[in-house]
UniProtKB/TrEMBL annotation:
Residues 175-303 form the CdaR GGDEF-like domain. This is Transcriptional regulator. InterPro entries: CdaR-like_regulators, CdaR_GGDEF, PucR_C-HTH_dom, PucR_C-HTH_sf, RsbRD_N_dom. Belongs to the CdaR family. Pfam families: GGDEF_2, HTH_30, RsbRD_N. The lineage of its organism: Bacteria, Bacillati, Actinomycetota, Actinomycetes, Pseudonocardiales.
Length: 412
């Protein structure tokens, strides 16, 4: 092991030199940290003169011991540094700033030594440099681990508290107490989203772990959703989808067309960031009405998916006909049976759906890449088989309803 007897700077034993100047070094390090790191300058004066000063002194003593003995800090010494890092995590000081403070301390010591180094002490200076790197090699991960352990604990506590609030809201239980314990204020209303999330391309590529790809997709989705929405978003999501409660400051019955347009843009941004298609059913309610809104949002989602709607945000008004037809009953099966003669004839079904969607024979012909006379023939064939003529105004609503009934997931 290296001994300080062989390390001299300015003609004096290194450890003796640093120990005698420890009070001054501590003050210099504190001043330099406050000067170079604005976040530390915002800490209370009593904390700077108390806890922060003690940590600086402890760090310097450990460093001096490393220079004297050649040994890295003990488990006990590292434990003290971990505890200090945990306190900085509690205070919300970013980890990069915490680690910078330790490097500043070493820089101050180095700056106090090198001006006095003599030509015959070059070997000593190089030895100090090597020991400094060894010291930082051990201290940096210890400080980082202490910080991250505390942040993980805080994150788990926060996530648990938010989950308690979410569960209370979805179960229809009073959520004010749980919200207060989580540091949240319940908004006037929540936009309840029931979302279905498609696969990211990475989830289906050979050689890529689909679980990892799915978790990465979910993280991006959550981060973008929380970035776009003011207030605390409560979610119960998996890579395949789930429930999200978006706080809104407008009462439940007063959301405007502009509000809904913004939510549609938000969902589009979320899907783009996640790299996956997202279909979502939405409903609005005050906190006490979240259970009913969640059920409605899930039903709207099921109808939107079952009726082949493209990715996007859907409210009940967007799927009124399909939603009503999804309610089970004898009329639903009877309605769907009106088009039973077309079963197995995908050409006629495709022509019928395209004609109703496009609104004209020429538009339908263009979409299907056939001659308009072919469309006329197919429409006549549909009328002959079903008794419903899609070109007659009085039959259009019934034909549309029958198609919706065929597609509904609620049909037996």
């Amino acid at each position: 092991m290296t001994s300080d007897k062989g390390l001299r700077i300015g003609g004096r034993p290194l450890a003796e030199r640093l120990t005698s100047g420890l009070p001054s070094l501590t003050r210099t390090v504190l001043a330099e940290i406050v000067s170079r790191i604005p976040e530390y300058g915002l800490l209370p004066a009593e904390e700077l003169s108390g806890d922060i000063t003690r940590v600086i002194e402890q760090n310097l003593r450990s460093f001096i011991d490393t220079l004297r003995t050649g040994s890295t800090p003990t488990r006990e010494e590292l434990g003290l540094l971990r505890e200090s890092a945990a306190r900085r995590a509690e205070e919300g000081i970013p980890i990069d700033i915490v680690l910078t403070a330790y490097h500043i301390g070493v820089q101050v010591v180095w700056a106090s030594l090198t001006p006095d180094a003599r030509p015959d002490e070059v070997a000593d200076v190089l030895a100090v440099n090597a020991l400094t790197l060894r010291y930082l090699e051990v201290v940096t991960p210890a400080v980082g681990a202490g910080y991250l352990d505390e942040r993980q604990t805080m994150f788990d506590d926060e996530r648990s508290a938010r989950h308690t609030v979410l569960s209370a809201l979805l179960d229809g239980e009073p959520a004010e107490v749980a919200a207060g314990q989580a540091g949240l204020r319940l908004p006037p209303c929540y936009v309840v989203l029931a979302a279905s999330v498609g696969a990211h391309p990475d989830e289906v590529i050979d050689g890529v772990d689909p679980l990892v790809a799915g978790r990465r997709k979910l993280r991006r989705l959550r981060v973008e959703l929380e970035r776009q929405i003011r207030g605390t978003v409560l979610t119960s999501l998996t890579p395949e989808g789930g429930i999200a409660l978006l706080p809104h400051e407008t009462p439940a019955g007063e959301l405007s067309t502009r509000d809904w347009a913004r939510l549609e843009r938000v969902l589009a941004d979320v899907a783009r960031t996640a790299g996956a298609e997202v279909v979502a059913g939405a409903a609005v309610a005050e906190p006490a009405g979240v259970p009913e809104a969640a059920k409605l949002a899930q039903d709207v989602l099921a109808v939107a998916i079952g009726s082949g709607r493209p990715p996007g945000l859907y409210r009940l008004d967007d799927v009124l006909l399909e939603y009503q037809l999804s309610r089970p009953g004898p009329a639903l099966d009877r309605l769907a049976s009106r088009l039973a003669p077309l079963d197995g004839n995908e050409e006629l079904l495709q022509t019928l759906e395209t004609f109703l969607r496009r609104g004209g024979r020429r538009q339908t012909a263009a979409a299907l890449h056939v001659h308009p006379n072919t469309v006329d023939y197919r429409l006549r064939r549909i009328a002959d088989l079903t008794g419903l003529d899609p070109t007659r105004l009085e039959h259009v609503a019934l034909v549309s309803a029958a198609l919706a009934a065929r597609r509904t997931p609620g049909r037996a």
